[in-house]
UniProtKB/TrEMBL annotation:
Record-given protein name: DNA gyrase subunit A
The species this protein was found in: Desulfocapsa sulfexigens (strain DSM 10523 / SB164P1)
Gene3D superfamilies: 3.30.1360.40, DNA gyrase/topoisomerase IV, subunit A, C-terminal, Topoisomerase II, domain 5, Topoisomerase, domain 3
Keyword Coiled coil: no
Gene transcribed to yield this protein: gyrA
Motif GyrA-box per UniProt: ranges: 527-533
Length: 831
């Protein structure tokens, strides 16, 4: 058996090896590619690109060179990851819409906000910008550590000795393994002022820094809405801000139409994609108010023109665009950077502290380097000073020596010089022996001694170091600082669906069997007085329109169910159906239980405002009443809310809006009624059970309730088809909770009471029998009689037929010439 065959290889756990290899790969990506260093704010590829440009001497005041030349040096010497990666980095550093303070001065096509690709690197040229001078300055003074490049053939800086807090002023973004960074750009003037404030007060808080560094500052401006996200990010290292485009409205020349003009869009948004998105929304009819959209941007700035159709409201369209397009976008802030070769999430103060610490190291190392150079120079000048002081003897000694080596040895022995000093004397030109030059050497020696003392004093006094850093910050601020471009405005309210719906009057119809729909008021044509009107819903057997409201699309409908719950629907959420269609069943709009049904519908124009003065009165079958402020119902839930607590054998039969000075009627099955003022019912919370409204006899229950809104008459109807109209004045006001007074006599002739309602001569009422028979009658045919009378026949019924329901019939939609097409008979539901 050979030696190779006898060799035993140790067993390696594949799990341990995979874990080790993956961690090595992850750290390589985190440290070497994806995340910036907290000190100079640069990733390795950015640092290598700037270093390669420095080595090529393509400074801001030198001629441009081909980008391909720079890329060649970057990938050939420092960054072996392909020319595309290197060129893309140079391109981005040259784009003024990507970098707040560009680090590359590009000449040629370096791409655009429309997503256009840059020209090939053989066509473009580049050089460093002026600000780069203060990123790479003092690199030759041993201020930072250098490390070997990828093939150990040369060295490269591990960090730049930057005077610019690039991590904040230009930001950074990158996705590593298991982590990501997303740092927005900031205004350099504010950041430098923040650094100066930290030097002046090391105990400064993040809250105080926010007063100086007010928030991110994006290259193309736009708005930041709200400060809460900024504050959270600065305090914790993570937060989210809302970016919003800058827009204004112009009137199109020669037209009454308006146009929305967009001049600044959120950071990192593609302008061409934005315009295409708006055009697509128009094409798909998701936004119907836009007539045309076009891009009029030029070298002077961005300008997107969105022309609106006639009579469209610009604010509504702008809200739609904010909700559906990149005109409004969030920016998630993550202050993640490399600190001491480890990734760390930092708050604002920590970022500034690390940069100041970096500058302290740079100043110390630079001062130490300059001290070494000054001491070396002083050492040489000290030798030259000895030489010119003993000039004749030195000349004679050199002349008498056999060769330079012997002369050098003689000088060292005779004047106690060092090797370097003696060599400097031998190298000295004869012109240095003139009187003027000898005086200059002596003066140079005095100056260098003073410089050495100054440098030593700096190294021994941290306050002097901090003063130097502070002065440098002031110089950077005054040299490169500019005004903010991004304006921070107060937080905007959430864009609700109604913010994207144009306010428009709608005719909302509800049928007796529970169907609801809406139509624009404008579809009902204007007619002369006395016209036949326009049919709002096609007549369907056993159904008719019982209620007709005119309400804005932003108004709210409250639906009360017999189980004591309340549901909300905005008018724009109600089904839009044809003019003659019934619409959609209400039960299909709400999340109702199996045996639950809608007992009452209340339209409210403005729930937020009306909550102050108005209340809701709910009436149950067993005679309980409850008054609750509208304020209790301003926060809707999809599953509904409890409006009141009721017993299992009880249910809501009606609900009304009260204005504060109303009187209330309750009518029972046995013909009793009670009339009381709403002040008798105190306002209660949402879950309260209410109080007794009327005292009922055994087996009696409430069949109707009325909130009196005028002095018109009360119609009471019994199950055998009899009824009567009586004046409101016949029903005296009592205290709630009593037995009340007789409204109509219930007898074998009349039967039990079916219902009651307030009517006038213009009202029309539908009576419905259990057989399906219906009769529609105008109240002008029913005369007003006293309360104590038995009533008159309203409908002829067979012996086995009974009236089971009654309801008002909504008037036909009608108007005249003088009203300019608006409804005269329809009143807003909340009036």
């Amino acid at each position: 058996m050979t030696t190779e065959e006898q060799e035993i290889h140790p067993t390696i756990s594949i799990e341990r090896e995979m874990r080790k290899s993956y961690l090595d790969y992850a750290m390589s990506v985190i440290i070497g590619r994806a995340l910036p260093d907290v000190r100079d704010g640069l990733k390795p590829v950015h640092r290598r690109a700037l270093f390669a440009m420095r080595e090529l001497s393509v400074f801001f005041n030198r001629p441009y060179v081909k980008s391909a030349r720079i890329v060649g040096d970057v990938i050939g010497k420092y960054h072996p990851h392909g020319d595309t990666a290197a060129y893309d980095t140079i391109v981005r550093m040259a784009q003024d819409f990507s970098m707040r303070y560009p680090l590359v001065d590009g000449q040629g096509n370096f791409g655009s906000m429309d997503g256009d690709s840059p020209a090939a690197m053989r066509y473009t040229e580049a050089r460093m910008t002026k600000i780069d001078r203060d990123i790479v300055s003092d690199l030759e003074k041993d201020t930072v550590d250098f490390g070997p490049n990828y093939d150990n053939s040369m060295t490269e800086p591990l960090v730049m000795p930057s005077k610019i807090p690039n991590l904040l002023v230009n930001g950074s973004s990158g996705i590593a393994v298991g982590m990501a960074t997303n740092i927005p750009p900031h205004n350099l003037t504010e950041v430098m002022n923040g650094l100066i404030a930290m030097i002046d007060n090391s105990n400064i808080t993040v809250h105080e820094l926010i007063e100086i560094i007010t928030g991110p500052d994006f290259p193309k401006g736009a708005f930041i809405c709200g400060r809460a996200g900024i504050r959270e990010a600065y305090e914790t290292g993570r937060g989210s801000i809302l970016m919003r485009s800058r827009t204004h409205v112009e009137t199109i020349k020669g037209s009454k139409r308006e146009a929305i003009i967009v001049t600044e869009i959120p950071f990192q948004q593609n302008k061409a994609t934005l315009v295409s998105k708006i055009a697509l929304l128009v094409k798909e009819k998701k936004i119907n108010a836009i007539a045309e959209v076009r891009d009029e941007s030029d070298r002077h700035g961005e300008r997107i023109v969105i022309e609106l159709k006639k009579d469209e409201i610009a604010d509504v369209v702008i809200n739609q665009l904010y909700k559906m397009t990149p005109l409004q976008r969030s920016f998630g802030i993550i202050f993640l950077a490399i600190v001491n070769n480890k990734p760390e999430v930092l708050n604002l103060k920590q970022i500034l502290e690390y940069f100041i610490l970096h500058r302290k190291v740079i100043v110390y190392r630079r001062t130490a380097f300059e001290l070494r150079k000054a001491e070396e120079k002083a050492h040489l000048l000290e030798g030259l000073k000895i030489a010119i002081t003993n000039l004749d003897e030195v000349v004679e000694l050199i002349k008498s020596s056999d060769n330079p080596a012997a002369a050098k040895a003689e000088l060292i022995g005779r004047f106690n010089l060092s090797d370097i000093q003696s060599q400097s004397i031998l190298d000295m030109r004869l012109q240095r022996l003139t009187g003027l030059e000898r005086d200059k050497i002596i003066q140079d020696y005095k100056d260098i001694i003073a410089e050495i003392n100054r440098l030593q004093e700096i190294l021994g006094d941290e306050n002097l170091v901090m003063k130097i850093i502070r002065d440098e910050f002031i110089e950077i601020r005054d040299t490169y600082g500019d005004e903010r471009r991004t304006e921070i405005i107060d937080a905007v309210d959430e864009i609700l669906p109604e913010d994207m719906i144009t306010q428009e009057d709608m005719a909302v119809t509800v049928t007796h069997t529970g169907y609801i729909k809406r139509n624009p008021v404008s579809i009902y044509r204007s007619q002369k007085r006395g016209g036949k009107g326009v049919l709002g819903v096609k007549n369907i057997e056993e159904d008719f329109v019982s209620n007709l409201y005119v309400a804005s699309t932003h108004d709210t409908f409250l639906f009360f169910t017999n189980h004591g719950k309340i549901f909300w629907r905005k008018v724009y959420q109600l089904p839009l159906a044809g003019r003659t269609a019934r619409g959609k069943a209400i039960v299909n709009l709400l999340n109702l239980a199996e045996d639950e049904k809608v007992a009452a519908i209340l339209p409210v124009a403005d729930l937020q405002n009306e909550k102050i003065t108005k209340t809701i009165l709910m009436v149950t079958r067993l005679g309980r009443v409850k008054k609750t402020s509208l304020e209790e119902f301003i926060k809707p839930l999809k599953r509904g809310k409890k409006a009141l607590t009721i017993n299992e054998d009880d249910e809501i039969i009606s609900a009304h809006i009260l204005t504060g000075d109303d009187t209330i009627f309750l009518f029972s099955k046995y013909g009793s009624s009670i009339h009381f003022h709403e002040s008798d019912v105190r306002t209660m919370g949402r879950t309260a059970a209410g109080v007794r409204g009327i005292r009922l006899k055994e087996n009696d229950y409430v069949v109707g309730s009325i909130v009196i809104d005028s002095d018109s008459s009360i119609l009471t109807v019994t199950e055998n088809g009899y009824g009567k109209r009586s004046p409101v004045a016949d029903y005296r006001i009592q205290k709630r909770g009593g037995l009340g007074i007789m409204a109509i006599k219930t007898s074998e002739r009349n039967g039990y009471v079916v219902g009651a309602m307030q009517v006038d001569d213009d009202s029309e009422v539908m009576l419905i029998a259990d057989s399906g028979k219906m009769i529609r009658m105008p109240m002008s045919n029913v005369r007003v009689i006293g309360r104590t009378t038995q009533g008159v026949g309203l409908i002829n019924l067979a012996d086995d037929e009974r009236v089971v329901a009654m309801d008002l019939v909504a008037p036909e939609e009608e108007s005249d010439d003088e009203s300019e097409g608006e409804f005269q008979e329809l009143q807003r539901s909340d009036e």
